[in-house]
Specification:
Strands 2, 3, 8, 9 and 10 form a five-stranded antiparallel beta sheet that branches. The protein is of the alpha+beta class. The chain has 22 helices and twelve strands. Helix 4 packs antiparallel against helix 7 and helix 11 crosses helix 13. Among the domains are: 75 residues, 2-Layer Sandwich (Alpha-Beta Plaits); 189 residues, no CATH class.
């Protein structure tokens, strides 16, 4: 409902208490540390703790790598909705107690990584040996080692040439390319379309000439060289592969033995992540040999409890003050259970800037209203509400952002169910289709208000009305912000004149028969009222022309800028027309649902009986699941767009910086640390 007031905190403590004070602040998560006013001088210095931070970072990396390895070798069994369970709860006492197991846990993480490295190396060796064994297969009929080069009088050539050769073609090739050489003996070991493996003997004095001739033919020696015949060498490789596989199984078993320490590894990751953040804060503080100074921001409502908490256990001097005008003060929102769920939507756009209000509460009402109109099916809304409600009730410790998102869709589900009953849509026209298909009875779910498919123009007019109210609310907030800031001229010139122009034109149009006939309205504004509205609109237009360029001193430029400001009336027209998407998406949901029902009736109704009912249910469920997912996404996207573009465009600039406290929650992944209550 509001942007929380932020106080500037200055704290001076004894250096011997620095560690405990910072840990207390980290567990409390109430202070955003700032070094804006902490400058070094002859007395106060900053510490260089890069080496310590690097060590903590390395420990976190070791822990996460070890956890990844454990999860690969022995995955942790988790329920389907484990992501909603949130972090496990832990206390500062558990944090302190872990200090005794810290180094041991780091060693375990390193052992797991080393075992994994050994497994990776063994797998690489297996792959290499398998490739070697495969390359030896063409040489299995050779009974001499592949590295055999001959005797004292004979040179041996063992290798392969491209394409398929015969013994005769080898001799012909040597006769043409080595005519001076003596007799040779060639044997084809294996031959195929791609290569021919051969064993060739030549006299020692002809070695160079034969080798030159073979090189011209593309002769290459085997990639695997050994002092054993190929088949025997392949057998040895297979034996080594089996030994490597046994080695891998042994190392995997050793890794699985570390599964009992998974929680310790997770604690290590969070523990050193917190220490990394803590030392990062220490590096931003200024200190002497005996004292240190800390500055930052704290929510005003937490300043008194924080002072009481710290002064009770430590000798410190603490001071709270209002931040200076030029300070980059962070923004922290505070809303009730109805408005807080849409804070994430607001934050996705931007947090309130200086002087702007928190629009979450006003935005929430419109958000749920518009979302429900776009989805507009009672069954879909009931399903959303029940699913979100059950998850919220069952998982109490889920992350704050997840909780807010589910709560937002819970309210959106209520709105969707409301508009579904108002428009008579329950899985589209499922009630009447099921009644006529299986019970041969005319059963209907009458709308409380009207059925959009029968009266689309009526819904379109209502959508435009909603849009006008939405836009005028945005203008009203702009008026409030300007008036509160003492900018009375801006409030009148930028808001009141536009109220007069746009509001006057709307009333004027509603007094014309053409507009009444076009939209099939059941009423018409009396002519005198319409005429008065026209005068009001004219006054508003003149006011915009005269004041729209008031920042310029040149009267001609001022009028020209005013005329350009008046041109923004087309922007209001397009903004109002944008709300026709409420009609489009609402009809899309209803029409697709009706088509799904007809498809299910055609598929199952024609067969009849139990088989027909089963087919109907399958088509019905698949179709409606697809419909709710597609239109749920569409409703979410377009509701956000109406907030960001049309609504915020009238009063909201944003630009605020989120309050990011020095907190354990921002550092940890597995555990949530909370300071214990002290009586």
């Amino acid at each position: 409902m509001a942007v929380q007031q932020i106080k500037y905190i200055r704290l001076c403590g004894l250096k011997k208490d620095r560690k405990k004070i910072l840990e207390r602040l980290q567990f409390l998560g109430a202070v955003e540390v700032s070094d804006l006013h902490l400058q070094e001088d002859d007395i106060f210095k900053k510490s260089n703790l890069a080496a310590s931070c690097s060590l903590f970072s390395q420990n976190v990396k070791e822990a996460k790598e070890a956890l990844d390895i454990l999860n690969r070798e022995i995955p942790e069994k988790k329920p389907i909705f484990a992501s909603l369970e949130g972090k496990r709860q832990a206390t500062p006492k558990q944090y302190e107690a872990f200090c005794t197991r810290h180094d041991e846990t780091v060693d375990r993480a390193k052992q797991i990584r080393m075992l994994s490295d050994e497994i990776s190396q063994a797998r690489a060796d297996i792959l290499k040996m398998e490739m070697q064994a495969e390359s030896l297969k063409p040489w299995f009929s050779l009974d001499v080692p592949l590295d055999f080069t001959g005797t004292e009088t004979v040179s041996a050539f063992i290798g392969a040439v491209p394409e398929e050769w015969t013994q005769e073609s080898i001799y012909d090739f040597l006769a043409r390319n080595a005519p001076q050489c003596g007799p040779t003996a060639a044997e084809i070991i294996s031959a195929g379309p791609e290569q021919t493996c051969l064993f060739l003997l030549a006299e020692k004095e002809d070695c160079a000439e034969v080798e030159s001739a073979l090189a011209a033919a593309g002769f290459v020696r085997p990639s695997v060289q050994s002092d054993r015949p190929p088949k025997e060498q392949a057998g040895l490789l297979q034996k080594e592969i089996s030994e490597k596989k046994e080695f891998i199984e042994q190392k995997q078993a050793e890794i699985r033995n570390f599964a009992a320490f998974r929680s310790d590894l997770q604690f290590l990751s969070d523990y050193d992540s917190m220490r990394y953040d803590k030392y990062g804060v220490i590096g931003r503080l200024v200190q002497t040999k005996r004292v240190f100074l800390l500055c930052g921001y704290v929510p005003a409502e937490k300043s008194a409890p924080l002072e009481e908490e710290l002064t009770r256990d430590f000798d410190i001097a603490i001071e709270f003050s209002d931040p200076a005008e030029d300070n980059d003060v962070p923004v922290l929102l505070k809303n009730n259970g109805f408005a807080a769920p849409v804070e994430g939507v607001l934050e996705s756009f931007s947090l309130p800037g200086k002087g702007e209000i928190d629009p979450s509460f006003i935005m929430a009402g419109f958000y749920y209203f518009l979302f429900g109109m776009m989805l507009g099916d009672a069954a879909y809304g009931i399903i959303m509400t029940l699913v979100c409600g059950i998850l919220l009730h069952k998982y109490k410790n889920m992350a704050v952002t997840t909780h807010k998102t589910l709560r937002m869709f819970f309210f959106c589900g209520i709105s969707t169910a409301f508009w579904g009953f108002m428009f008579g849509s329950f899985f589209g026209d499922a009630v009447s289709v099921i009644g006529s298909t299986f019970f041969h009875a005319a059963v209907t779910l009458p709308p409380i208000w009207f059925e959009p498919l029968n009266k689309p123009m009526k819904l379109l007019i209502f959508c435009f009305l909603v849009g006008i109210i939405h836009l005028f609310t945005g203008l009203g907030i702009s008026f409030y912000q300007s008036w509160r800031a003492g900018k009375y001229k801006d409030a009148i010139c930028d808001v009141v004149f536009w109220y007069m122009l746009v509001g006057g034109l709307i009333v004027l149009l509603l007094s014309t028969k053409m507009m009444v006939s076009m939209f099939d309205l059941t009423f018409i504004v009396p002519a005198p009222v319409g005429k008065t509205a026209g005068y009001i609109a004219a006054v508003g237009a003149v006011g915009i022309i005269l004041t729209g360029g008031r920042s310029s001193r040149n009267p001609v430029k001022r009028i020209l800028k005013g005329l350009y400001s008046l041109y923004n009336i087309t922007g209001y027209l397009s903004d109002i027309l944008s709300y026709s998407r409420l009609l489009a998406l609402g009809l899309a949901t209803s029409v697709i649902a009706s088509v799904v029902n007809k498809m299910a009736a055609m598929a199952g109704g024609g067969i009849g009986g139990i088989v027909g009912a089963v087919i109907f249910i399958v088509v019905f469920l698949v179709g409606h699941i697809m419909n709710i997912l597609i239109n749920l996404l569409g409703a979410y996207v377009h509701t956000n767009r109406l907030q960001y573009v049309e609504f915020f465009g009238k009063f909201y600039s944003g630009g605020g910086r989120k309050f990011t406290p020095f907190s354990a929650d921002s550092s940890t992944q597995y555990y949530q640390f909370r300071e214990e209550n002290k009586s």
